[in-house]
Design brief:
Elements lengths: L2 E8 L2 E7 L4 H5 L6 H8 L4 H16 L7 E3 L5 E3 L4 E7 L2 E7 L4 E7 L4 H4 L15 H22 L6 H4 E3 L8 E8 L2 E12 L2 E8 L4
Antiparallel strand pairs: 1-2, 2-6, 3-4, 5-6, 7-11, 8-9, 9-10, 10-11
Length: 213
């Protein structure tokens, strides 16, 4: 089982990352899907998607959950039946979850790609990045910001929330491996802790809603 990385964020919050290398048969062993999820998986044309889907069930098992513990609300946000918080992500051959019994959480894994330079203006004030040393550094930083905003969007789960207008990620250096962010939406302000890591050309960002924030 290639659990790629486990991160203990706090005594109540953990991140689990999987590198999907096995074929579908191996991944389906020991995984019991609800009828709803079996139907979802049967509808996936891509084997890569099915493998990612199954690997997430293995990550859930590491956190002590089975497929039937998971349900989705009308916005598409995942929840656990015991009241703990969960967020799920997958990108190419990496999948990840964050589970917390205490905090609202979000997670995102992104491949670092040049394409992000073209869409940056849609989610962040691009002029803030002019001082970075080179294109690679700009791509890395933009990917972290995008991942942070994606993670926050997953926590907030409200239609109409704009990455550019409503979510502000405070500037950081790569060495920080963390920052904070704020969502200001419909006159309401909330605050979040952001942590990030990079591996094999991918960026993983996860967010926790700050108490009282």
């Amino acid at each position: 089982m290639p659990i790629y990385k486990t991160i203990t964020v706090s005594p109540t919050t953990s991140v689990y990352i999987w590198k999907v290398t096995e074929d579908e048969d191996i991944l389906s062993k020991g995984v019991e899907l609800t009828l709803h999820c079996q139907n979802r998986m049967d509808g996936m044309k891509s084997e890569a998607h099915r493998r990612a889907f199954l690997s997430i069930r293995h990550l859930m098992a590491l956190a002590g959950y089975v497929d039937s513990d998971l349900y989705y609300d009308d916005f598409g946000k995942p929840h656990l039946r015991d009241g703990s918080h969960i967020s799920i992500t997958h990108s190419h051959n990496f999948t990840g979850i964050i589970v917390s019994s205490s905090d609202e959480v979000g997670i995102d894994i992104e491949m670092q790609r040049e394409k992000i330079l073209r869409i940056a203006h849609k989610f962040t004030p691009i002029e803030e990045y002019r001082t970075l040393a080179n294109t690679e550094a700009i791509i890395r930083k933009l990917t972290i910001v995008w991942g942070a905003k994606e993670s926050l969007y997953k926590i907030y789960a409200q239609q109409g929330l704009s990455f550019l207008q409503h979510i502000d990620v405070i500037d950081f250096t790569f060495d920080d491996a963390r920052t904070v962010a704020e969502i200001m939406y419909k006159g309401k302000k909330s605050h979040y802790e952001i942590e990030f890591l990079e591996f094999e050309g991918f960026t993983c960002v996860y967010a926790l809603k700050m108490m009282g924030g």
